[in-house]
Amino acid sequence: MKKALYSFLELGITSPAAAGSNRARHNARLRGLSCVNSLLFILLILTGCGDDGLVNPHGETTLPPPDTTGLHAIDFPTDTGSAWTYVNVNTNQEFTVRIEGTRDISGTTHRQMTVGRISPVAQDALDREALDHLSANAFYFRVPTESEFFQEFPFPISATYFYKTPQALIESAFDAYIFPWSNPTFHQKHAPPRRVWDFPLKIGKEWTVFEKTVGDPVTVTRYVVDRDVRITVPAGSYRTYVVQEEAVFGDSDNPTTRFISPPAAYWIAPEVGIVQYRYSQYRATDALATQTFALKSVHLPGPNTD
């Protein structure tokens, strides 16, 4: 009998009476630990809570409310399929600008904005229009100044390539339309890229579109001068932000030689885009030709998600 009991204990098997005693001691330990944990939790709540009953983490910062003023990137539509038709109020000629397709520029996907042919045009006349003030003032494709004909002629832009962030619309490249060539499309990258729009647009904001330092210095600056300006064009009546653009040529203090032309102006309506713009052509002749383009129709695939 003693030998059997010895073997029973040697195998590590506890008798029923001993097992019951062990369970009782184990349960007592668990109840003790539970009480200690509950007490520690209560102390943590009492010492770590703020006025609202929540734990205040170390180093907590208060985030500013989101900026809802001004015209933001989401308010400036650039979705694929968008199209704007403009009419030249001086000649009644019109053309359409479209967002269509993409192209890789230096490893980044860019959207392509194409500029359609103008109509009506006289027979054998150039059926292209300068895209905006920058192209009209020869700040895309420049030619040698010793050529009098090319110096005075603003080569049209048939496409530009851009990407948009919440902070800006960046234009990285363009296609110039060089009509004397058998293949008239001339693709060129900007160096550096141009900050065409800086978001959000607010009165008093000013930014540099681009700055040329090689050769004769050129700086193009845009600045927001007004908001809620009501303007009526063939496409409708809109409340707009007014952005002016100043192109400065050279570093002379004499305004008659320093400024290339009178400031261009853009009227921009939220969720529509540019509804009117005006510019004067590059100062290659004595006379400045000022042109105004008004929105005739707009097609937005919507809702604007870009």
List its salient traits.
single chain, 306 residues, alpha+beta, 2 domains, twelve-stranded antiparallel beta sheet, 5 helices, 39% strand, globular, disordered N terminus
What is the element layout, followed by pairings?
Elements: H1 2-10, H2 16-48, E1 83-88, E2 94-105, E3 108-115, H3 133-136, H4 148-152, E4 157-164, E5 168-177, E6 185-198, E7 206-212, E8 218-233, E9 236-249, H5 255-258, E10 264-269, E11 273-280, E12 290-299
Antiparallel strand pairs: 1-2, 1-12, 2-3, 3-4, 4-5, 5-6, 7-8, 8-9, 9-10, 10-11, 11-12
Average pLDDT over all residues: 78
Assign the structural class, choosing from mainly alpha, mainly beta, alpha/beta, alpha+beta, or little secondary structure.
Answer: alpha+beta
Shape: globular
Helix-strand string: HHEEEHHEEEEEEHEEE
Strand portion: 35-45%
Percent of residues in helices: 10-25%
Structure annotation, total helices:
5
What does the largest sheet look like? 12 strands, antiparallel
Give the CA-CA distance, first to last residue.
Answer: 89 Å
- Count of distinct strands: 12
Unreliable sequence segments: 1-14, 147-152
Give the radius of gyration.
35 Å
Strand order of the largest sheet: 6-5-4-3-2-1-12-11-10-9-8-7
Number of domains: 2
